Amino acid sequence: MATDLIDEKKVREEMDAIIEMTSHPAFVDAMNTMKKTPISKRRQLGKKILSIDHLESKGVKVPKGMRVTTKVFRIRQAGNHRTIARW
Questions:
Q1: Which of 62, 67, 80, 81 is most buried, judged by most C-beta within 10 A?
Q2: CA–CA separation, 42 and 58 (whole Å)
Q3: How far apart (Å, rounded) are the C-alpha atoms in residues 82 and 85?
Q4: How far is CA 15 from CA 12, 21, 32, 56, 76, in A?
Q5: Any idea what the Cα angle at residue 84 is, between residues 56 and 65, rounded to 5°?
Q6: What is the pLDDT of residues 49-70, one digit of tens each?
Q7: How far apart are CA 53 and CA 62, in angstroms?
Q8: Is 52 in contact with 68 (CB distance < 8 Å)?
Q9: pLDDT for res 28
Q10: Cα 37 to Cα 54: distance, rounded to the nearest angstrom
Q11: How far is CA 44 from the centre of its chain?
Q12: What does each C-alpha distance from 57 to 13, 26, 32, 48 come to in angstroms?
């Protein structure tokens, strides 16, 4: 639909909203807490401290329709997988 077209203004507005969210002190604190947590416990912790409800309760303005997910990144080395980052 024509109303769903993307333009420079819309992209800038959406990126600004994401920057506002991810630079909020409570979001930064949550991410640092995740990084300090052992990998085996991050998934469970992330469900709590990175939930939209929790972030909003800390004053983080979450853009409408935004979803926060955690992801494991792995690299393959000689048939083995090694975790390089996990949020």
A1: 62
A2: 20
A3: 9
A4: 5, 10, 22, 18, 32
A5: 25
A6: 999 999 999 999 999 988 888 7
A7: 9
A8: yes
A9: 96
A10: 18
A11: 15
A12: 23, 10, 18, 12
Using the structure block, give the residue that is written with the tokens 């990998």.
39
Q: Is the pTM higher than 0.85?
A: no
Where b means 16+ CB within 10 Å and e means fewer, 8-21 reads eeeeeeeeeeeeeb
**Owner of token pair 């998934």:** 43
Tell me the mean pLDDT in the region 25-32: 96
Token pair 């992801």 is found at: 71
Residue 73 CA, chain-centre distance (Å), reads: 14
Q: Is 27 helix (H, G, I), strand (E, B) or coil?
A: helix
Q: Which long-range contacts does 23-28 make (Cβ < 8 Å, 24+ apart)?
A: 24/58, 24/59, 24/60, 24/61, 26/55, 26/58, 26/59, 26/60, 27/55, 27/60
Strand positions, DSSP E, the chain: 72-77, 80-86
